[in-house]
Write a structure and sequence with these properties.
181 residues, alpha+beta, 4-stranded antiparallel beta sheet
Length: 181
């Protein structure tokens, strides 16, 4: 297990269920900008298999991004978050993409980050992936992102985070070239 997976847990606040929101949520705040993403990682999705697309209920039963994602961003001048993190629709899309991508990789060990908060693999994995997505979208510092997710950070991270990783990668390449000379 990569030793820096604990960062996914330390970046996130585990929001306990309430009467209005009966599912655990993951909240991540960027302390330098005040921007915050909350993801209802353990909220079940509607069972669309119970309906056909021709039935009127099918459309109303589909998952609505705003039921799963809540974003609060500071004013545009100080907000350095990824563009996709600014609307529930695009944040929901990226969250689902990254979660499915990592879920299908046998080498992903993110679930350990939230153990023993939860002892079911699917719950710990969902929370860890939600924390990762929020951390990338908010552009937390490079030191707050586990190294095994740097490739995702370069592609989906906020501009400053992605740039810092590319520069760091460029510095390493320069050092390798100097050693080879």
């Amino acid at each position: 297990m990569p030793s820096d997976l604990h960062l996914l847990r330390s970046n996130a606040e585990l929001v306990l269920p309430t009467e209005n929101e009966p599912h655990h949520q993951i909240a991540v705040t960027n302390p330098s900008t005040g921007c915050k993403l909350v993801i209802a990682a353990l909220k079940p999705f509607p069972n669309l298999l119970a309906y056909t697309p021709a039935q009127a209920e099918w459309k109303s039963k589909k998952a609505k991004p705003e039921d799963y994602i809540s974003a609060t961003h500071s004013d545009r001048k100080h907000c350095t978050c990824a563009a996709w993190s600014k609307t529930a629709d695009s944040a929901f899309e990226i969250w689902q993409f990254i979660h499915q991508l990592l879920h299908n990789q046998a080498t992903d060990q993110a679930a350990w980050a939230f153990y023993p908060d939860f002892n079911r693999y699917a719950e710990t994995e969902a929370c860890a992936h939600a924390s990762l997505v929020a951390s990338l979208g908010l552009g937390l510092a490079v030191e707050k992102i586990p190294e095994c997710y740097y490739s995702l950070a370069k592609e989906f991270g906020a501009p400053e985070l992605a740039r810092a990783l590319r520069e760091e990668e460029g510095d390493e390449d320069d050092q390798k070239m100097n050693i080879d000379d």
